[in-house]
Design a protein that fits this description.
This protein has helices at residues 7-25, 40-43, 54-71, 94-101, 109-123, 133-155. By secondary structure, the chain is mainly α. The longest helix has 23 residues, at 133-155. The chain is elongated and about 90 Å long.
Length: 156
């Protein structure tokens, strides 16, 4: 307690005194009840009157955008270049995929799982252009069959 008042009460009294002195010094048009300073649009200098109103500022930006588009001639967008199939997607035989996976008798369940994930990250049909999905699907199916076969051998 400070001088017979709680800290909270002394802070409230100080804020009330500051608010009264600010209200006396400020013109009535620039004051909003409960605020200690003028609003931003009253403080800023060099701002046009129309941009002080949010509704006019919106229309001004629309006019500016219209001027920019009207000045630049409309050109059709350039066509996308034809996608090129990656070389590895052309290798769809079981021998090619087995050589790429490099499955050996020393592989563990964890290493086979890592090989499956790495192969799927590169070859999954959802990650390639739709035109090449048939090859990617064939590669993923074959790789999954080879890895599943190796996992069955480990289980024996």
């Amino acid at each position: 307690m400070l001088f017979g008042q709680s800290v909270f009460q002394s802070v409230l009294d100080r804020l009330k005194a500051e608010d009264e002195t600010v209200e006396e010094n400020a013109p009535a048009s620039a004051r909003v009840s409960g605020l200690n300073s003028g609003l931003a649009f009253n403080v800023m200098e060099g701002v046009s009157a129309s941009s002080a109103r949010p509704d006019r500022a919106y229309f001004e930006t629309m006019e500016f955008a219209h001027e920019k588009t009207a000045a630049a001639p409309l050109t059709p967008p350039e066509p996308e270049p034809e996608p090129v199939m990656p070389d590895y997607l052309a290798h769809i035989t079981a021998d090619d995929i087995a050589a790429e996976l490099d499955i050996s008798a020393l592989d563990t369940v964890q290493s086979l799982s890592l090989k499956r994930r790495a192969f799927a990250k590169k070859n999954h049909p959802d990650r390639v252009d739709p035109r090449f999905r048939a090859n990617a699907t064939t590669r993923m199916t074959t790789a999954n069959l080879l890895i599943d076969k190796a996992l069955r051998r480990l289980a024996r």
